[in-house]
Each structure stands twice: as C-alpha cells, then as structure tokens.
C-alpha cells in the first residue's frame, strides 16, 4: 500500500479521494502560476523591447516559442480542470466524499467558478497583490 504521512491512502475511500483532490488542486495552482509567469515574461518582452533599443525583428522566434509555451500551458490547465471535474463527478456518483484542502487565506480551496462537494460555491476573495494590485488600482 502507498503510504503518505505514515497512513495508508487506501484506509478509506474518503482519505484516498481527499489526497487525489489535494493533488489536483496543487497541480491546477501550479499551472496557474506557470501561466502567470509566462504572462509576465510576455509583457516584459513586448513592453521592454523598444525601451531597450532593440528592433522588432530579433527575438521574434523566441516570442513565437513563448506563445507556444503559453498555449500549451493553457491546454494542460484545461486538461487538469477536466480531469478534476470528471473525478469529482465520479466520486459524487459513487457517493464518495472528500475534503478539499484549505486555501492559504483559510477559506475553502475552491475558486469562485468552482463548486465544493456540497455545491455551496467558491472560496473567499482577497485583495490583489503584486503586479495585479498595480493593475487593479
């Protein structure tokens, strides 16, 4: 049996489903962070080129590759969300419950467009920070 923190993940269906849900949530968050970082890179490339005194031609191939990476990251994120939805649907059909991990702000992990197992809605919103705070103001 696979062990996590000294407990067999197969001890209960609930424990197993909770571990899978936590892993999927972590993967979705990682995809979001990757996409955000790629967006920052794209913004820096597009806005900084002229200011740095570079012509438009050099770097175009790199920009094309970056666009491909962004598209692939979006596709991977879409697949993660679809996997999550499919597994959650199967779990509900089989009456398997799971515990969603808590978000860093202490609220439910589900985002505003997601539903938790009871269908009560998404997590709490927080004030934007970093670059998002600059754009939001």
Chart the SSEs and their pairings.
Layout: E1 3-4, E2 7-8, H1 13-52, H2 60-93, H3 130-136
Describe it.
This protein is mainly α and 137 residues long. The chain has one domain. The protein contains 3 helices and 2 strands, in the order ββααα. The protein has a two-stranded antiparallel sheet with strand order 1-2. Helix 1 runs antiparallel to helix 2. The longest helix has 40 residues. The N and C termini lie far apart (51 Å).
Q: What is the chain-wise order of helices and strands? A: EEHHH
Name the poorly predicted regions. Answer: 110-126
Terminal residue distance: 51 Å
Number of domains: 1
C-alpha Rg, in Å?
A: 20 Å
SS field, number of helical segments: 3
Give me the count of strands. 2
* Structure classification: mainly alpha
The 3D shape can be described as elongated
- How much of the sequence lies in strands comes to under 5%
Main beta-sheet strand count, sense and barrel state: 2 strands, antiparallel
Q: How is the largest sheet built, in terms of strand order?
A: 1-2
Helix proportion range: 55-70%
Provide the residue-averaged pLDDT.
78
């Amino acid at each position: 049996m696979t062990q996590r923190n000294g407990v067999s993940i197969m001890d209960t269906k609930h424990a197993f489903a909770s571990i899978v849900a936590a892993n999927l949530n972590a993967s979705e968050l990682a995809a979001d962070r990757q996409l955000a970082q790629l967006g920052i890179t794209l913004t820096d490339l597009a806005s900084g080129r002229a200011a740095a005194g570079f012509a438009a031609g050099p770097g175009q191939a790199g920009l094309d590759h970056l666009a491909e990476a962004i598209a692939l990251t979006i596709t991977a994120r879409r697949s993660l969300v679809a996997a999550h939805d499919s597994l959650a649907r199967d779990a509900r059909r089989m009456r398997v419950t799971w515990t969603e991990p808590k978000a860093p702000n202490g609220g439910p992990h589900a985002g505003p467009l997601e539903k938790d197992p009871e269908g009560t809605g998404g997590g709490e919103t927080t004030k934007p920070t970093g670059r998002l705070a600059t754009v939001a103001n």
